TrEMBL record, chain A:
This is CBS domain-containing protein. Coiled coil: none annotated. It comes from the Bacteria. Residues 25-130 form the Cyclic nucleotide-binding domain. Keywords: CBS domain. It comes from Marinobacter zhejiangensis. Residues 177-234, 242-301 form the CBS domain. One of its GO terms (molecular function) is [protein-PII] uridylyltransferase activity. Pfam families: CBS (PF00571), cNMP_binding (PF00027), DUF294 (PF03445), DUF294_C (PF10335). CDD domains: CAP_ED, CBS_pair_CAP-ED_NT_Pol-beta-like_DUF294_assoc, NT_GlnE_GlnD_like.
TrEMBL record, chain B:
CDD domains: DEDDh. Signal peptide: none annotated. This is DNA-directed DNA polymerase. It comes from Marinobacter zhejiangensis. It catalyses: DNA(n) + a 2'-deoxyribonucleoside 5'-triphosphate = DNA(n+1) + diphosphate. GO terms for biological process: DNA replication. GO terms for molecular function: 3'-5' exonuclease activity; DNA binding; DNA-directed DNA polymerase activity. The keyword Nuclease applies. It comes from the Bacteria.
Amino acid sequence: MTHSPDNQHPQNTRAIMGFLREHAPFSFMDEAHLAHFAEHAALRFYADNDVVLSPDDGTVTDFYIVKQGRIRGERTNPKNGQAETTFEISLGECFPLAALIGERPTRTLHRASGDTFCLSLDHDSFVTLFSESDPFRDFCLRGVSSLLDRVNQHIRSGAMESIGTSHSLDAPLDRFALRNPIVCSPDTPIRKAVALMHENSVGSIIITDDERKPIGIFTLRDLRTLVAEASAPLEAPISQVMTAKPTCLPAHADAFEAAMKMAEHHFAHVCIKDSENRLIGVVSERDLFSLQRVDLVHLARTIGTATHLRTLVSLRSDVSRLVDTMLAHGADSGQVVKIITTLNDVTVRRVLELNRQRHDPEISFTWLTFGSEGRQEQTLLTDQDNGILFSVPDGMTEDQVRERLLPFAESVNKDLAECGFTLCKGNIMASNPKLCLSGREWDDWFIRFIDASTPQNLVYSSIFLDMRAVYGPMGPLTELLDKVLTRIQKNALFQKMLAENALNRRPPLTMFRSFRYAPDGEPHTLDLKRQGLSPFVESVRVFALAHGVGAANTLERIDQLAKKGVFDTKDANAWKEAYSLIQAIRMRAHQDLLDKQQPLSNYINPDHLNPLDRRILRESFRQAQRLQQKLEVTYQL
Amino acid sequence: MLNSVKTWLSRYRQSHPEHGEMPKPKALQQQPLEQARLVVLDLETTGLNPAKDQVIAIGAVAIRGNAIDLRDQFDLILRRPELDITETVLIHGIGPEALTKGHETEDALLHLIEWLDGDPVLAYHSAFDKKFLEKTLRQQLGYSMGHAWLDVAELLPAFFPKAETGGRGLDHWSEHFGLQASTRHHAAADAMVTAELTLIVLNKALKDGIFTLSQLDEKLRHWRKLSRMKQY
């Protein structure tokens, strides 16, 4: 295939190339490959309900893209013999990838949903594209996951931009590279060069000429290759095995530039030169990125030892900056959420300690957190959901203990609010006498909760059934949890009610696979938390409680359910991926709002996302629908 | 496209010393709809009067097996530098420069006849295209064999009598079915939209038990009779 300028293609070929260019993975493909596609395609029409592909058609040969309309996948439910829609394929999406790659018939009946046009590619042309275009092959083999990587790259680069203006990576390079780099001449034997590195415990050595100009670099990684491949004797001169012309930056370049260079070229060291091209230092990836690790450890330590509430308050902005950094370094949303939770926990503990220093109630208690904090799924937008589980000292009544603890709890709630943990509107806080209870009282509370499940109770299930201890002895909570889980496992009716409740929040997709906007909030917005994450969180909770999974974290619950065989491993992975992606988009939106100094909100307008994000978001919502379907089948709803 | 035409022409001239062996037009007979090759064509002309106006551009696609096969398409601008085309240039976007890049008329038309391969031709308001094309072929090549023509503007209301399109134009029907022309008043793009509408018609025809070209022709005759009766 030769590349040819656009105007050499006939109009209709150009038009199809234009269509393809708007959709991933074609948007990542070379012009020549797109032209090949457009010139070899056929356009087909299917009226509403027409069968496009059937399992009876035999081995799939053609590749399809929806050009207009939609295709739905249909499988017969073995239980009731009814046809169920298993997936929908809309504009710009391809099918049937798995069957095509597996060279087998499709397992799902593909039907047109509305009047539909598809572009098809016969097997020969498909094979040609598959072998010649990397992005196309990647997409065919890995499907939507390959696009997910691109979204993550995108999130990463977005966060990188905001990092560029933050302090640490903005700093000039020579601040990181002041140490005297270990150097040697090109004729130094390898063994001697390695000995030099060893003596100075460094990971790299720079080979310089007589004027101290860097001409090569040799790193531990090179040494590993050298040993593994036995490519040169250790007596050979280092110049034989060094990487020539190492990447250099001037001293006034900033750390961000170095980080970008390293990320771009996958090497771990950059030489710093002065204006005469002489070596003045070397910066390693670890030097740059350990900064961020230090940040986390250091920040946690600073929070944990703060002596005043106002110090804690001021440290909150550092947490937000750290989240940015973590996203930029490719941490996935699950990790970032956990880090936020960790730092929040440290803050809560410190607030409790500071309050005890001022006024110790002298009662042994466990500080409980519920809801998203209980699940370790907090983002920057978080409110307080907490309670107290206390033990009753001899000679005191439960009410007397409560009387002593409540003023303390109230002070803690107030201080936490100052640190940015919004006061809970529903008064689910430790200062509420109904949530400051002894072990026995909590147990009674849960018995009532489970046995007399009112609609109001069920609303609370998302809060109280995701519970975790943050401070104080863990024993009393473990004891309580055991009883609660056993009770739920025995109570099929409660499980069914929970399941029903979990289905109240549907993923925001319409029958036509476009987004269903949130009923409240700004027009044309989606509520990523209530409409996107909740369907996952709530469905997974039902399965977890029904199978005695004690973890409160949604991803951990999914993992354990997969281990117990409740979830298929593939499904479990798809659901984790989808859940994490919605979470990542939500966090990015939060960071954007913070940058603009606007109040945090969970609403986003999908029109403001790029087409790829939009599509992946839609795919993620579809996974939520599948999870809910599983719930419906399990509990026959 | 240009190169492929040149290659084809040199081969054609070697094997056809004179224009004696032109493909013969096929009548609308028992050819199954699902197998027949149908050509969907659109012309751009210098004006609306076949007696004095000329063809500027020819765009066509082929339908076979109920699909538009993009390997089998025709998109050419004729070389007509002697024509005054200022009148319609605004509509078509084809200026004198684009025209001179086009083909020697005779070569292009020869290629078209060969490419048509005698297959039935469909067009929107086909009477217009038929008159222009037949006149051009006769004047330039002395070719006077008539292809079988089918009018997509008739097929659509015949198969979708209840469609509320708000008009009888190509745009009305495109809009009705949510189609989008990549660019309007471009012969190839208009041929494509017409072909997409044809696919919709063929889909419906098969469901209505119409399986051959002659049945399709019959259906049209019947529809014409009906609509004439309605007028009284």
